[in-house]
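job 3f2a | input accepted
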Amino acid sequence: MELRHLRYFVAVAEEENVTRAALRLHVSQPPLSRQIRNLEDELGVALFDHDANAVRLTEAGRVFLTEARVILQRTEKAVQMARDVAGGKRGEIQVGYAPSLTVELLPRALRYFRKSNPGVRVQLHDLSTQEMLRELRDGKLHAALLVQVPPKARAGLVFEELQHLAVCVALHPAHPLARARKVGLEQVAKEPLIAFTLADYPEYQAWIAGMFAPLNRLPQIVEEHDSMTSLIAAIESGRGVAVIAQPLNGLGSSRLKIRPLQPAPPPLGVGIAYHKKFRPAATNDFIDAVRRAKAG
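job 3f2a | predicted structure (296 res):
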């Protein structure tokens, strides 16, 4: 039994006439009659009673009509859903992000995306940079908002830079340096630093080391943390200071002070990464929404 058998049967049942059903289906009458007979033979029951002018459903035919309509409706729905998913109008995409870097950009992007793709759910994943790169390659993430990493680290991926973020130092309000409007890099170099873990954020520690390299001294990293939440808590407790990007102003506690560095280090690049080849249509729409968020 094929779906066309069901479509033919429903048309004949609704028209109660093979000739009219054939016109409706744009097929000739003899093949249509033959398909109906084949369907009855396969089922082993009579679906129609025939007379000179019309065909009438048997009791078995009436039951079969109800179920055939359900099957055809579900099939049409399945086809439409598949087309919607392929066209980026339905489904789900997985997006990685760094909260401290995307506090302003991500909410705007999500608003734009939901307007254009209301049937697509965006599942957000707060991950380290290394986790995002790995899951992009494995196909577990469709896109990720993250700090710019060296070309070798993003092999096989596309990275679009979206914004540059000023580099600052985060301090406890009681820290002596918190009273200054700007903090010298040499002053920070003398302080115990709180940093992200080397295993999850190697690019962060490399960035810190490069920043202090002109001073001919290594940063004094006294604690490592695997999340922004724990890093903020450590600063709040007064155990050290942290070099961070500007959007922490949007995430940070009122119990922190954020001060620009002097001389100002090169700004930190942030952007969106995605696979070069394999991404669903909805991912392209999300990338467009992020571009709009950057511009807006």
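job 3f2a | The radius of gyration is 32 Å.
job 3f2a | closed
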